[in-house]
Description:
- The complex is a heterodimer of chains A (about 325) and B (about 240).
- By secondary structure, chain A is mostly helical.
- Helices cover about 75% and strands about 0% of the residues of chain A.
- The two termini of chain A are about 25 Å apart.
Amino acid sequence: MTVKTEAALRPRPALPAGHIAFWGGAALLCLALVAGFRVLDNEYAWFAGYFILQYVLLATAWNILGGYAGYVNFGAAGFLAVGAYTTVALRKAFGLDLLPCIAAAACIGGLLGLGTGWLALRLKGVYFAIATLSLAVLLHTIVVNWSFVGGSRGAYVLRPASIPPFVSYGEYLFVVMLVLAVIGVGIARGIEGSRLGMGLAALRDDERAAEAAGVPTLRLKLVATTLSGALMAVAGAPLSHYTGYLNPEAAFGLAFSVNAIAMPLIGGAGTWFGPVIGAVLLASLQQAATVTISSAANLMIVGVVLVIFAAAAPRGIVGLIRGGRHR
Amino acid sequence: MSGEILLRAEGVGKRFGGFVALNGIDLEVRAGERLGLIGPNGSGKSTFVNCLGGSFPAHEGRFIFDGKPMAGLAPHRRGHLGLARTFQLPRPFNSLSVLENVTVPLLFGPARETSPAEARARAMACLEQVELAGRAAQHPRELTQVDLRRLEIARAIALRPRLLVADEAMAGLSHTEVAQMLELLFRLNAAGTTIIMIEHVMRAVREFSQRLVVFVAGNKIADGDPNEVLAMQDVEEAYLGR
């Protein structure tokens, strides 16, 4: 047996030791971020940090279906808005705090993902993408006409000044989103090294060949749409608390859908690390543009970076780093 | 050829719009048999395989595999029952290594290996069977045409099939490579796998098949001993014209 063959037989890296390193590293990073921001003692740091982390989670969620299974979802904003409006509705109806609302958003987003998958996954390629875009338009129309959550006027959320032991509510939201983002990335990483990840990769490469190889493609796609939908809704659940005001135009904004696609593609779709890199890079650039030029420049920045990467590095930053290795 | 009937096609028909691709095909395949299926391009051979594998639904008729009707069964369920196929044009999973390509059916197939490590070891055994073990760590884009064909077969046998349909497994191969592929198929058959060989390489068909079936324009026009079938005037005309 050659050295190469022995290497091929070696198990993939997602083993317990790798998991410990990942979760330990993530915990250390989280502590370092919170400690660093506390030292900065600037409310804007929490605000900007939340913005970036929200996109880390959204891009990671999109990547589970778009990157791993190869099904492009153009309606990410719809799923995110479902999470945001779940919080608004539950808060108004039952006075629930943010954390139970996030859990409820995960359930509703997951169910919506499952339903979308059930209805739309017999469609392939561009037809599936159009179906997801249509779903976002449909959800937008429902929310605009749903006066309980403010309809087209929008809804205000009065958030507390702070929640102990956090110094400010901004810090609390940052920590909540940090934990959610780490969980989301951990789930994506777990999928990548698992039986599910292998099945998704097979169906992404060739669905008919995957079926012939015994892969239950429809079931795996439903798992992917459910997980992806749940995590996208979770990414949106704290949005109303973050902005203090939520209206359909903001929640269903084009920027969410465009960024959800662009960030994994720029970072490297189909890998757990790619969306993280893409989100940190693009969201930071957008925050910088917002405070120095105008938030109106955000989508232009995304467009320019996306075109550059599509031409120069179609497999994203991770693909560039891996060089000649095949995806 | 004395085994029980493993596959029975009863009046299988398939239309694409107004075009009749298969017209009431009846066919029986016995366990352990080596069946050759030939016909000119467009005669319905691959459509028959696609209907059998569940990629297309048949408009009429049915398949019975190992005594069980297969109507409505998803393609992956047919694989779990013991029906495997290769594709006319190799369809590897390009983002996965050669070893991972073969691991997929072991992780999702009927055996459902308990651990990925076990599945990888079994996959390596399959690669050894098709003499591709040395390329386990490579990616399909690095393989030659004959190795891609071998990979197709390795992925199919990883399902531990009772029936393997090899759809033009010799296409584009050199004389020596055809001989290697034939040897591989003979070995698999000797190990108990029933094989339907769909092929245009007549030398291979004649050498391999115990029985030969000919499709022309969606109809089965001959079924019998290969030498007798190939000597039939209808068959000659189907290939060479009147």
